[in-house]
Amino acid sequence: MIDNAFHDEIDAALKCVAPSWPLQNTVAVNPFWYMKDRSFNEALSSLESATHAPLVWPLDHYLKDLEGGRISEAALERALADESKVSSAPIPETIDELIEASRNEIHAEAGHPTTLILSCAEAFVFEKQWGETIINECGKHAAAYFDRRQAIAGLPSARNNEGFFESWKQEISFDRSMDFFGLTGLRDCAREFVGASSREAIAAMLHELAIHSHTERVLYMQRLITTVIGWATHFRFHEWQAELTNTATHIQTEDLLAVRMIYDLACFRAANEMKQRRPEIDMAIAHWKKSLQAELHTLSLRRIWLRAAEYSFQNTAAVLLQGFTSSQASLPASGSPSFPELTTNASGEENPWMHVVFCIDVRSELLRRHLELSDSGIETSGFAGFFGMPVGYQKSTEARETSRLPALLAPAFHLEESAVCSHSYDLRARTFTESYFRNLRKAPISSFLFVELFGILALGRVLRRNLTNLRRLFGIRVLPQRFRDHGFDHTDPYQRAGIPHADRVQLAENALRHMGMRRFAPLIVLAGHGSVTANNAFGSSLDCGACGGHSGDINARLLASLLNDRDIRASLAERSMSIPDETVFVAAVHETVTDEIYLLDNKSSSARERDLVKRAQEVFAKASLAARKERQVSRTRRPTALPHRRAHDWSEVRPEWGLAGNAGFIAAPRSRTRGVNLNGRFFLHDYDWRYDTDFQTLRLILTAPMVVASWINLQYYASTVAPQVYGAGNKTIHNPVGEFGVVEGNGGDLRVGLPLQSVHDGERFVHEPLRLSVFIEAPLEEIERIINQNEAVRQLVDGEWLHLLVIDESGAIKRREAHIFETVPGPG
Fold first, then answer.
1. Domain range for 197
2. How far is CA 297 from CA 64, 109, 136, in A?
3. Residue 153, domain member (yes or no)
4. How far apart, in whole angstroms, are the C-alpha atoms of residue 335 and residue 65?
5. Needs which cofactor (predicted)?
6. 528 belongs to a structural domain
7. What is the DSSP code (8-state) at residue 667?
8. Does the pLDDT of residue 339 top 50, yes or no?
9. Total domains in the fold of the chain
10. Which of 93, 139, 371, 823 would you call most buried, defined as having the most Cβ atoms within 10 angstroms of its Cβ?
11. pLDDT tens digit sequence for 136-154
């Protein structure tokens, strides 16, 4: 009988699975998102038991950091004291005892490697390598189920909106693959559940396996689902989208769990036929529990070191933010010395001639700093890269509308691209033709003849590409193809979509208010960001997370069109938000591989505007060159190709480092960070609480940008500490599957997270896995009020999924620990 407790067990087991987005719009995801109701320490202890993967860096790494000065003794003492308050296991009392205990653990782990056991049954039949075969089989069936017009003959069950469990039962009735591998009883197992739902089947299998206690059931199901966690995340993505749009879906993660359990049940029965009975399985469970106790103790030591590394990072950052706000200071990059060097820096002018609004992405920090250093008349600020435009956007060359806003939100408006004038050709017809030829290239027979028959048609593209490369070689800046308007009109698509004037005014007002824009320079550049790479399945992971895994050029164009509209400006003036007539907004895009800034749609109407644009382009070119030189060595000392070459090289596995190194988030006035070299490790959101009278902007920052930054941070964290589980593996052996994911080699589990090359330079990891340290300059009581009113934010803060630090009016920085704020010292 299925009761509420059983449903709770399945839900608890599946909390270890977060959604993952398709390759077309890869969004950085916190892989522990559904476990945020537990503390960081509790969740990681549970997941280490389920995955047999270390979720904190090894102890020997932290010992090296202590010797190298990256972890200070003061931070280590503080971490020991804080961990003693929350740890149920005994921990060392002094630094010397901690070092000795850590070295003992390293020697113990080296002498007694952990045996990888993921299920009761497989513990007895692993010599047949059924575990790997089962994962491949699950992947084969899942790939066929999610196929959307890639295969010549798809599954009828997938087209008929049947669940995966029902679809698999139909397929397995005639699929004899496992018979070949010796698991002849699989199809008999499947037939027993022909009329059962996935949950009914799971309940029956747990009963037959004699796994009765709540803890063992949850752990058993977690271990099985994490063997196919990549495919599970894709199931979860469909559930997420259905919940976000308030629609029903037949795709359920529990269906995959039921299928995976049937394979395991068949293994269990095969083990019984081999005269290996239940007492031996009980011994295996006892072995797991014994090994888990040792792992939990090791984790408690690693937690201390992780906390100490985070405190050291915070203490160094605190010095820069408190005492040297008028100086050029440097935060260490990964692998750099612990303490900063300081040099002088000029502050900005009272009346800047240009204001550039960047996304808060950590890659913009470096470019913002070089822009301000190159010209004291330039002001920069950071804002969420979708620029407050909550839209779904339908491009003429794309089959479906794409959401150009954070994945946490649903689009409020739906817009379509519109042609400026009639073309000499129909772009949609051209797109259809290109799609037709791409399909011919993939088909089984035509693929062998494609080059001979149609290769000549690629001549024009080859010539254009070579001409573009020659222009770049001679220093001529060429706007990348993906950012061009292709003859389409981006001016005020809101009006064309029939969106009322009042709503458009409200969008513009909200954007300006939350940006904190109180004075208007003659030229205001709205710079979204995007990445240009070649032959890169994970290319969208380098785009803007705030834009739903797309480049930010569309959003920048949308806001610029609103703010340049005279009627909108007149209505804003009635709301006491006057934009000077001489101010012009220009959309731009920061191409993150080359650090070039390209102005978009800059058809200036006056000589004055043309002069401003020309001056801006000159400054951008100078700052981009300086940024490229610094970024070239900011993450690794290994020699790399020039950025422009990396962007277009089909063999390049590391076109850029993306957000590697991210560790902090700052919401404060730019005066707090201007001139400080934060080494691309902070998300920078401009915010001045003195002008936020109702603290709605503060609420927005804590509930949206901070959460998105935490997602990014924890994805990089997980992909670094446990790349075999939460990483996407090796790019050089990736094979795309269904245009929504990749596998390594010719099958197996879907690989999610970040590829190894995104966090590792071939010799060492370039990302330091630290939880996000969030610095907010705002009143303590308002921050606490917002935290307590938002459950997700409260869980992240109270559960220590991130660190919250507050900058008070005096500039002192206080860290929130168990609802108490304590002053953060400098590095010692």
1. 4-33+116-276
2. 21, 12, 34
3. yes
4. 9
5. Zn(2+)
6. no
7. E
8. no
9. 1
10. 371
11. 999 999 999 998 766 666 6
